[in-house]
């Protein structure tokens, strides 16, 4: 696909109506330092960034304060579904193909204090999904799981089931029908709302009892910008490749939405925390954006 670079004008007002969103800054990250980078994930403080690197999508960590990139894992797929926990440790999944061609997945935890990884969920055939929590993370597996620490709230999806754990009790919900299943669950910063993507339906926001609060449209990869707003990817394709992709800002109640990048920017896979928005492009170029919302 022809390379399309994103160009933005700082301070560009993007929305009318009662709300106005201004892009304050938008700049390349790790320019000339790293090769193509995908699946970025910010820590809750916004001081660190996970991303997938290389043909195998290995996992790396960038520290904004130290301006240092650390290689966490070269294992295949380690960077695709990695998540920080509240303490700054990293939970990720590695996979290997056995001699009989079965895929085995292992739940790993990278300790930020020791800079070492350890196995926390032994390899198993079948799915292993990250469970993201307000206190700690865990994994939900096809045969064995690792629960997030009791006392907090955590979310996970598998198939067309949304798992919400509060106070150590896990309940299953199917807020909307979706034959192809759910993806990308996340908790709002205050831990009171859940957002996820339902195939064929788009982004769904629920409360902690699985009650649908809003349907936000057929956007992908939702991430909470604040308790009231989410950022998401709005992409189109021709069945073979992307034809456009942009980053959207959407109010959690569905009352407002606007684009943060143009459709031709090929911007995708947004993550957000502490007032920062980071995303990549189809060519793997990382960008960091800040915005201002006037209501």
Outline of the structure:
The chain is 0% helix and 55% strand. With 295 residues, the protein is mostly beta strands.
Approximate helicity band:
under 10%
Main beta-sheet annotation: 5 strands, antiparallel
Class inferred from helices and paired strands = mainly beta
Radius of gyration: 18 Å
Percentage of β-strand residues:
over 45%
Question: Segments where pLDDT lies below 50 for 5+ residues?
Answer: 1-16
Oligomer: single chain
Number of helices: 0
Distance between the termini: 39 Å
Arithmetic mean pLDDT: 92
How many strand segments? 26
Secondary-structure element sequence? Answer: EEEEEEEEEEEEEEEEEEEEEEEEEE
Spatial order of the strands in the main sheet? 1-2-26-25-24
Would you mind describing this structure in some detail?
It contains no helices and 26 strands. Helices cover 0% and strands 55% of the residues. It has strands at 12-13, 20-28, 37-42, 48-53, 58-63, 68-73, 83-84, 90-97, 103-111, 116-125, 128-133, 138-141, 153-158, 161-166, 169-173, 182-187, 194-198, 202-206, 212-217, 220-224, 229-237, 242-251, 257-259, 267-273, 276-281, 287-294. The strands form 6 sheets. It has a 5-stranded antiparallel β-sheet with strand order 1-2-26-25-24, with no helix packed on it. The chain is mainly β.
